[in-house]
Structure formats: C-alpha cells, structure tokens
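During the second year of the project, the team shifted from modelling isolated chains to modelling whole assemblies. The rationale, set out in the original proposal, was that interfaces cannot be judged from single-chain predictions alone. As a representative example for this report, we include one of the complexes processed in the last quarter. Its constituent sequences, exactly as entered into the pipeline, are reproduced here:
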Amino acid sequence: MKLIQDTIHGLLKIEDWMIKIIDTPEFQRLRRISQIGFANLVFPGANHTRFEHSLGVMEIARRLVERMEIDEDEKMEIVASALLHDIAHLPFSHCSESVVERRLGLNHENVEVVLRKGEIKDVLRDLGFNVRKMIAHIKGLSDCNVVKGDIDADRIDYLMRDSHYTGVAHGVFDAQRLINKIVFVDKKIVIDAGGLRSAESLLISRFLMYTTVYYHHVCRIARKMFEKALEFCIEEGNLKPRELFHMDDFTTINFLKASGGYPKDVVERLLNRKLFKRALYVEIKRVGVNLNRIDPSNAEREIAERAGVDEKYVIVDIPKLANGEEFEALVLVGGEMKRLDEVSSLVRALREAEKNSLMLGVYTPKEFVDKVSRVAAEFFAVDKTYQSKLF
Amino acid sequence: MKLIQDTIHGLLKIEDWMIKIIDTPEFQRLRRISQIGFANLVFPGANHTRFEHSLGVMEIARRLVERMEIDEDEKMEIVASALLHDIAHLPFSHCSESVVERRLGLNHENVEVVLRKGEIKDVLRDLGFNVRKMIAHIKGLSDCNVVKGDIDADRIDYLMRDSHYTGVAHGVFDAQRLINKIVFVDKKIVIDAGGLRSAESLLISRFLMYTTVYYHHVCRIARKMFEKALEFCIEEGNLKPRELFHMDDFTTINFLKASGGYPKDVVERLLNRKLFKRALYVEIKRVGVNLNRIDPSNAEREIAERAGVDEKYVIVDIPKLANGEEFEALVLVGGEMKRLDEVSSLVRALREAEKNSLMLGVYTPKEFVDKVSRVAAEFFAVDKTYQSKLF
Amino acid sequence: MKLIQDTIHGLLKIEDWMIKIIDTPEFQRLRRISQIGFANLVFPGANHTRFEHSLGVMEIARRLVERMEIDEDEKMEIVASALLHDIAHLPFSHCSESVVERRLGLNHENVEVVLRKGEIKDVLRDLGFNVRKMIAHIKGLSDCNVVKGDIDADRIDYLMRDSHYTGVAHGVFDAQRLINKIVFVDKKIVIDAGGLRSAESLLISRFLMYTTVYYHHVCRIARKMFEKALEFCIEEGNLKPRELFHMDDFTTINFLKASGGYPKDVVERLLNRKLFKRALYVEIKRVGVNLNRIDPSNAEREIAERAGVDEKYVIVDIPKLANGEEFEALVLVGGEMKRLDEVSSLVRALREAEKNSLMLGVYTPKEFVDKVSRVAAEFFAVDKTYQSKLF
Amino acid sequence: MKLIQDTIHGLLKIEDWMIKIIDTPEFQRLRRISQIGFANLVFPGANHTRFEHSLGVMEIARRLVERMEIDEDEKMEIVASALLHDIAHLPFSHCSESVVERRLGLNHENVEVVLRKGEIKDVLRDLGFNVRKMIAHIKGLSDCNVVKGDIDADRIDYLMRDSHYTGVAHGVFDAQRLINKIVFVDKKIVIDAGGLRSAESLLISRFLMYTTVYYHHVCRIARKMFEKALEFCIEEGNLKPRELFHMDDFTTINFLKASGGYPKDVVERLLNRKLFKRALYVEIKRVGVNLNRIDPSNAEREIAERAGVDEKYVIVDIPKLANGEEFEALVLVGGEMKRLDEVSSLVRALREAEKNSLMLGVYTPKEFVDKVSRVAAEFFAVDKTYQSKLF
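Output from the structure prediction step:
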C-alpha cells in the first residue's frame, strides 16, 4: 500500500491493484490534461488535472461503497470505474470534446476507446476486471449510480477541487454531511431527508461555479478559439478526430503550433493571452431569432462576410442548457422517495436561474469588435442596448 | 495601536480610541454573551461570543468605509457604531430577546439603554462621539446602511463566523469579492453587477444557516425553555425585564438556579441537556388552523389542560418569517439600480423556500410526549401522519 | 447512532454507548470548562471547551485503535478512556489545578474522584466497563499509551483545536500523516521513520503554541490572579479544594463574586479586563538568585512588604519546565527503535529553546508597578536593563 | 484596475501598469513553467506555476512597501521588481537551472537576459522603469531587501503556496503576523521582537518543506534525469544553453521527445512515471570519501563502467547545503539589532538539522539497481547497512 497526499481529501490509501492501473501510460496521460481547460487564463491557480480529480473521485466512491451491502469484488469494480471514469478525456478536457462529438458521436464517456487496447487493457485483464461492466458504470448504464448519476462521486469531487484551485468559495458545500446522509436503495444513491440541505447546497454550488467559473466569458472564448483551430486542422486533413483520445495538452499545443498558419496564430493568441473579445454578449432571452434554427458555422460565415472579416476570425457561441439530471436525485422523505426538485423549491428555482444565466456570445479579435458587433446585433435581432455588462 | 488575532479576519489593527471603548465593562460584558445562544448544545464548537463578532463587524465596516468619500470623522463614527452595534444584546443573545420585546417594546438595537450611562457614556463623550447619530446608524435610521441595511457588515461577519465555529460549511461565501463589488451611491451600499453572484451566495448561505443552525429544533427548544423560565421569574416579580440588559450568560444562569423551583428545574435541564422533546413538529402549511389568531400562551394552557400536564411543561413555538430585507439590496445593472430580487430568480426562490421551511413545534418533557402529541395535533388540526422527520 | 459536527475532525459518529456517557451531568459539566482558561482575554475566539476537546480525543483514539490488533472490547475501553480523560478537569482547566495539587496532591488525571460516584458511575457499570483499567489508561499507567503517552491522542487534538480557535497558525501540523505513520509495537505507539517529519512538526507546534498562547503573559497573569483568589477562599475556610472537582467556570466565577472582598475584586478585574501588569518579566537565566530555593508565597510577602503594598496584590510567578516526555517518543528507524531526541537534532534543540523561553514574572496592579518593579528586581538580583520586551 | 483571484492571498488588485507587464509574452511564458518542477510526480496537486507565484510575491511586496517611508516611484519600482523577479526562470524551474549555471554562469536571477529585449523591454521603457535598478533589487544588490534578502517576499509566498498545492501542512506559518512585525531600518527588513516566533516558524516551515517536498527523493531523481537529458542534447550540439531562457515546460518536453534516442527515452520515463530508482541513498555523514573532491560525472562514468551499465543510465546526486541566508535576518530586541541565529536556539538547531538531512543518492533504472548498488557503495565507501529507509 502507498499513500498519496491529495489536497482535497487528505492522505489517500492506494492499494496495489490501484497502483497497477495508475502506473499505465494511459492513466499517466491524465497528468497532462488540465481539469478545467483554459480556466487558468482567468484563475491563475486552476492548473489542476484530470489525474488528481480521478484519484479524488475514486476516494469518494470508496467511501460510498463502504456502506453498500454488496460483495467486495463488486465494490472494487465500482471503485476502479471511478478511478477510470475520465480515462478518455480529451486535451484541455471539455475544450476539445465537441469536435470529437460532432464528428464521431463520441465523448469522454466512451472509455472503451481507451480501455480496449494498450497497457491498460492488459493490466485490467490481469487484475480480472470485467471491462464491459466498468464501462456501464462509467456511462451510467449499470444498476448503480455511484460513478455517474444525479448526485455522484464525480460531481462531489469536482466542485470541491475546482473551488480549491480557483479560490472561488462557491464550490464549498457540506460534502461530508452529504456523503453521510446518502443511503442505498438497491445500488442507487438516495439522499436521506437529513441531507436535503447538503444536497441543495451541492446544486447551488454547481450553479454558482458554472456561472462564475466554467462559463466565465474568457473561458468560453478560449475554448471556442481552440475548438475552431482543431476544426480547421481536421478539415485540412491534418488531424483525425480519433487521435485526440491519445493526445494531451502538451502534444496538442505543439501540434497546433507546428501546423503553422491559422492554428499557429490561434495557439499563440492562447499562449500569450491575446484573446478574441466579445463583439456581442447578451442574455438569450434578448435574442430576436430562434436560436434552435441557427447553425453556428453558417452564422459565423454570414456575419464575417457582412462585416468584411475573415470568417476564421468570427466565433458564434450558442450555449446549451445542461441537462440538469441532478435535479432528479432521489430524497427519502417520511419513508417515501421523492425527486429533489419536488421537495425543494430552491432546487426548482435553480432550473429557472440556469436558463436566465445563458448568454449568446460573438467573439472576434479586438480590432474587428466594432464592425462585427454591429453586424452580429443585426443578425441576431438584438437591441444593442441590452449588451450585457453583467459578468 | 494594538493587534488582535481574529479567527475570521486575521490580525485586526486596534486603534487607541477603539481600545478605550473595548476596555469598558459594558463592552467586556459581551465576552460573556454567546453569539448564537444554546446552539452549542448541537454544535459543540459554537461557543463564540458577541465580543468577537463585534470586533469582526467593526473590521468589515472599516474595510467598507475606506472606499466611501466622506470625511474621516464620519468614517470613525460609522466604524464605532459597528463596534457597538450589539452592546445591548441580551443574555444568550436572541434567546432572551422576545421576553424584553414583549414587555418593554425594546430589543438589542435599543443601544441607548446601555450607551446613555456608566463608563461607556463617559468614554464616548471624551472621544467626542455623537451618540445620537451612532444610534441612528445602529438602528438603520441614518443615511448610511453599512452597519444595518439589507446587505451589511453585521450579516457578512455573522455568517462567516457562525460557519467557522459550528463547522457547517453553509456559511462560506465569497465575502472578499462581495466587499470588493460594493460601491457607494451617496452613503448607501449598492452591489455592482459583477458582485451579483456573491450577493446571491450570501443570501443562500443565510438561508442554509437558518434552516440548519439557527432554526435547528434543538436550538429552538432550548431557547423556548429558557424564555419560559425568564417569563416565570418576571411574572413572579423576581426579575425586572430591564435588568436583562445588564446581565450576561453567567449571571442569568446563576439567577435562574438560585430562584429554585421551576426556573431551577429548567436551567438544570439546559445544563445537563435533559431537554424537552418534540411532541409536534410540522410544516406550517400542514396546520389546519389560522396561526395568526393563536396566542401561544393560551395554546400552551389549553393543550396542557387537555393532556393533563402542568402548563409550565408545554411549549408552543410558532415561527415568524424573517423580514427578508436582504432581498431588497440594490444592484447596479447596466447603469440602473434594481432590487436584488428583481434581478435574481434565485433570490426570489429563496423567499418561497423560507416560507416552506417554517415549522410549528410543540415541546414537552420526554415522558409527556405521547399525551401532548395527540392533543396538540388535534388542537392545530394537523394530520399526524405529516409529523415531520425532515430535520 | 448519532452524528456530531466537530469543527476539527468533521462529522463524528457517536455510538449509543458513547451517548450514554456524554449525557451524564458529569460529562455535560465539561461544556462549562473552558479549554485554555483565560486565553480568550488575548485570543477572543478561544472560547472552546473541554467538552469538544474530549470528543476530539475520542475520535483520534478511535482512529488509532482501529489499527491495533486487540479485541473489540479492549478497543472500546481505550476509546472510552479517551472520551473521559478530562472528566476531572477543574474550573478554567489548568488555571485552578495547582490549588488542588498543592493541597490534595490531586490533579485532573485523578479521574477516580469523579468516576467513582454519581450518574457516571452507574452508566459505566451498566455498560460493563472496568473503571480501574480506564483510570490506568488515563494516567498513563497501562500497557497502552494511546490516551496518555509521549505522542498521544490528547496532544494531537489540543494542538489542532487550540490553533483553530485562537487563529494562531502555529498549531497546524500534519496530523493525518502522523496518525498514518504510527505503528503499534505491542500496545505502544511507535512512529515509523516516514513520520519523523510529522512528529518533529508536532513538537515544534507544541513549542510555538506554548510560547505564543499558553504562556502568553496575559494568560499567565490572569491564571495567577485566579489562583490567588481561590487560595484566599480556601485559607479563609470558605472553599474546600475538593469541591472544585464538581464546580465549573460559571459556578466558580459566581462563588468568587459572592465571596465579596478580595475574591470579588479579583474576579471583577478578570471580567472587566483590569488585570495586574508586569512589574518584572525576565528570562530566568537573567535571575541572580537560585529560583529552586524561593517559595513564591514568601517572595510575594517580602516584596509586598518592602514595596509597601498589600501582599494580596503582588504575584510572583516562577515557571516550571514541562517534563518534555514527548521527546522520548519512539521512532522506528531501519528496524531499530530509537528515541525521537536521539534521531532528530531539531527535537534536541527544542529542549534548549524551551529552557530559554522561560520567564520569571512579578505582577501587580498598574498603580503599584513602579514600586514593585524596583523591589522585585532587587529581590531577584536582576539587572533591570534586561527587563524583557520580547513578547 | 482589475481583480485577480489568487488562491493564497485572495483578490489581488491589479493596476494598469501591472497589466501591461503581465500581458507581455515574456511574462505569460511563466504560466507554462511549473513552480516546483516535477514535484507533481509525488504530490499530484503541485501543478502551480511561476506565473501565480510572481503575482503572489508582488502582493507581499506591495503590503511591505506600504509601510516604508519612501516615495511612490520607488515603491512602484520595488513592486515591479517583485513581479518580475522570476522572469528568467527556466523550464521546470530549478530542474534545468544547473545546466545553464554550469555552462554560462547564469541562473534565474540573471533577469537581464530576458528584460533587455522583446516586448517586455519596450513596456518597461514606456512605463519609465529603471531596469538597472530593478535588476539590483532582484539580485539582492540594492539597498532594499524586500524582493531578495534573508526573509523576503519571495520566501513568504512560496512556502504558503507550495503548501496549499502539495497539501503538506508544513508550509503553514503565521505570515500575516510576520508581515505585521516587520519594521524597516533604512530600506532593510528587520523583524520586531514580537515577530520572533513567526520568523522561527517560517524557517521551520522552510526546513520541513525542503526535506518533505523539495528534496523528496522522487523529485530529485526526476530532476536529475531531466538535467542529464538536457546535458546530452547540449553536448550533442542540438541545444544551446541560452535558448532555455526562452523555452517553457511544453516546448522543452517536446524538444526532448523530438530529439529521439536517449533524451526521448528519458522524457518518456518522466511522462509515464517509469523513473530511475535509488541504488544508493545514504546520509552524507555515512560516506567514507571526501565528497568535495568527487566530480559527479566522473563518478557516474566509473560506477557505470564497473557495474557494466551504460553511463547515461547512472546518476550520481551529491547535494549541496543551501546557503542559509535566512538565518542572518535581523531581529530588533530591546533596541538592538541581532541576527536571528544569535537570538534563537531553535534557528541555530536548524542549521545542524539541515546538514544532517543531506543525502547522497545514486539512481539507475530498476533492472540495474542491484548491480549499481553494490558498486556505488564501494565507490563511496559506504557500509551498505546504512542504506537509508528514512524517507
């Protein structure tokens, strides 16, 4: 057994079988994938990685399975799934995900892409794991929702961790009480009534972290710039989307730099923090057109053309509402199981607040902001006086 | 100048004039008034006092006035008001307040009761303070709402402090950002748009702390027991309500013990944690009668009689909704001042959530719970199956 | 089972048998005994009590016994001993201890004074505990040093806790690693080599907390004033030393106040923070006489007489070196057990540093400081230029 | 003005002139230089960078100069020097420093290498800074020791920061009190007597962080492997040492990978955590030869040859004692200035403890450990039974 010092959960006890998984190149690659993409452009301390997050999720899972009444092998399988749940994360985490999703219909939950070959495949086989079942846990398709569910080990860890590294207090919630108030009905997490406030508190943290950190306009701009550079390389035939599953932050930056031209320009802007600026940034309810009918690429082309700007330098960013599965977590009240949003008016309000916080953005280099701003406002039928200075 | 180590705000710089105020017996008395009454019966770390809270509020006020454009004398007056805002707090803080309020129409904001005599009067006069103006700041009747307003120095400190000492994470919010995003319009606090999330976060903390700590049923039971013992002494003619302004936790406990009989029994129950239990505890929306028309004392008498229990051993606890002035804090959005609850759907939801969290309680010693429970359910026309196990 | 929120160790799981002990009046009394006496006169947050410390020591003991290879009954006995190790603590903790020690040869480890009667006796009997063995654990006379030893559960808790409540960072050390690096040889705690730095770190914390907090001159002055008032009451025949085992901070303050005269004057000085001041405060190596041959009472009498001051208003405070048993903790290096001070030059240096930090003090009310100062310097043959301004 | 959220010091107020410096490519490069090299191989949270550390040192400097009695321009110059003090740091910080030091006699304090050209040169000129004076502050050659001295802004920040990100409590010390107890004699930092414990505490933190984190054997092994790969590239003529001043972690890793052969093998070992292991690891006092006379490269060659191993796969790591300038910080005791190590026996002990903690290491891939171990023990005349298992 080995001890690893985690900044969030303290000393982690790492058993031999875990070491074997951790020591594979596939897992070590997570050391080079930043947890929240380019958030360190805003929060300079946010340099944490999927590696430490994965250890943290494993730790939370370990504490949860302890109180499940299942046999040791099944517990180990769940814990290992927690450890490996992000093994297929892409460079800069979510920042390159949509590129792959759009082309291949795959995302970071498609861990089979990684687990079915290489050293990790051999190690899992030697340890006797049933990889098929692990994949089900990770995708939320098994009968147990510890790894992926409405309130799960993943969410508990990332809120605490992202809060520690950004310095934003919002991520602080009462994790220990929440974990203690989780009971298991079959293999499903249910919150005991005494944990209601802690569960609400987690959802609120999540909402505040989304609007303050994850959806900070600088994070969104950097992410969109990065996506667009990747898209360019793919369209030029220089990058196969599937390769991204085996790249990391280091190799991707290097690849883009070496590509020259547009990708090189974008990556240098990211590295030197010469980012695109907001030409338009408004609450979606201010938008006069139906956003569901707008294809962002087309919109970019049209706005660029009208503004007389190279289309590669106009980005249209239409936000999507998170699916909000957390709202459906189950709470045990007076012997009955109810949905969290049934029991808590606060949670119901969060849905509303989330919708209201969505912003449409159009980004372009500083020198084009005026031109693009005017055209974009027209295109989206926005009264420009609504241009938000909110965040 | 002197340094005092505060657990929440770090080293506080205490100027000479502050020391003069702090060193009066009137201010030192605050060392012996616990900040959140009997909460230490549930949260063993909650032994903090009005003394340290007062220093903390002064510190927050000091940081706030720094950016007001008023002259130094006025700043000093506001800071001194912050320091003294709780000088008239009563034994076990809010736990003895309603007794005084009912009889004399005075509460802890009537600082004139304390400031107009004794050493403190002399010190304030020697320092050249205008006590009348200070009282206005403390009561929220001046043109400046730093000490008492919707979002004020008091609230900022108590949430952080109560969180530290109870160990309940809910009180954690982004105080530093909030303070930095406060601007002054005349002498009124206004939240800049960039501080909206921090302000929401404060209100949420407050809500969660209320339901988890301040309104924890054990805290409420202990408080009500204590109140009833004080009422008894007053009715027997052994205690004048006004005396409570000069008593502290130590002297009050001792007085009740020395009174013998019922007060002694109650205080021993408090000291030995042999508290009354919940005979009824239901959400007020489950109650079948109009609570506005019920006088708690009458209700206690009637329930006791029907249950065949001494009326001194039945407590009816009808909660009141806090006035929610925080919801009315002003936010500066796009050059316009708006009310916080106009701008934030989350804040609007909190009002609703607060109402839903109100519980009616009837408490009695363990051995009478069954009898009283049945009668009380009848009295309040409550379907007993709704008896809440929620918190 | 019940959960208690501890500010230091998080949620504590309290089993039924623990609740039975905690709910006795003897244990509840610890709620009213402040952990570090009058330290709150300097550190306003230091209002924590022996009650929460006792829960904390129990928690550390629980974590330690988990890895001992002994049967469950013995584990429970050790954990219960940890819970009860301070049950005989006296009002304001160490502040009244020497009074009892001098007269009766008893101190707070003589838990038999409390455990052998009252409700606690019955509860322990009903739970089937062997009280004799528990007493041995608490006094450090058993074959197991978890509760009392060189590095034990008590020390680990109090450093962390006193640090949290004073706000002094010095108490922070790597407790989790230390606990993880403890191995058991028979039933004795031994530090594995990998925990050497953590053990050093604990000793350093202890040293810094002693010099900064526990031996802060204001704490020492208040303690000595309190002791002298108690001594006075005993000599006048108004207080039997043994009674102190059943008194608490509240009742003692009240008793002194009610005594009138000198005790009343002292207690009012303590309550209103009108403390004695330092007439002399020098490193003991500056002292020109042999302190071992000086009886403090005699010295007080003589200095008072020469200075023309009432002897009750002169206090001579000759510090004693702590016994430093921690230095003798065992460390496992390369298969061999060695003493901590053998292995660590840093630890050896602490002994020296401790000796050098000892200060002789003579205290008296402000108005007598000049007179007493001169006489005291003569009496102790101190060159007054050495009068320390160090702390 | 802009606000940046720092995890250690809270919200930093960034003035316009600071933004201009921060926004240069030279400063942005610090985002890609990890603060403590390969320490994240042991402490997975240690991904922080020279970028955020530089902001932190600026903040500490800002707080310090506030109380100096010098004009605003000079204050600004010192604060700017603090911001730029690490601008010439090399890839993976100290991990590539010795390579440059050995060849060019330059280290990260030779900021002139960076400041004298590029965008940063222009920005500093436009802002009117005297670069010559700034360099003097950074090298500790000016009349002010805020940026570099015995106890300086740099040390205060890195201990706090490294502690936060490694999760090792040892770095916690009482920074706020220390800063408050600093007085200025001319432009030199002097610790007021009341800050003695805080200063001791900083030195102890530094010692514990050195032995626990910075000199953790895995950190040393990774660093030495990296150095050896760089040396190889230089000797092969593929890398000019001076280029390293403009490279970062990303580009260096990429360069080594692209170099193929030995450097590629080393970098893959680092990325996949297949590190060399300790063939010998002993306290230097156990070594039977005079280490001052040993050239590490020669030793590597000879040991490799005798063991029949490729010399590129044997590393000899002879530690150097830090110069310990902190021990010479000045303390103001009774009106006199004394050296810290004169006043504090604890500090004197640290010197000794530091010497005793030095370890000689010989590292090689796992498969050669046995062979190399035997030969190395002979070469250094070490009794192998002393092989340390200490850390």
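The beta strands of chain A are 2-6, 10-14, 182-185, 188-192, 277-283, 315-317, 330-333, 336-339, 359-364. The radius of gyration of chain A is 22 Å.
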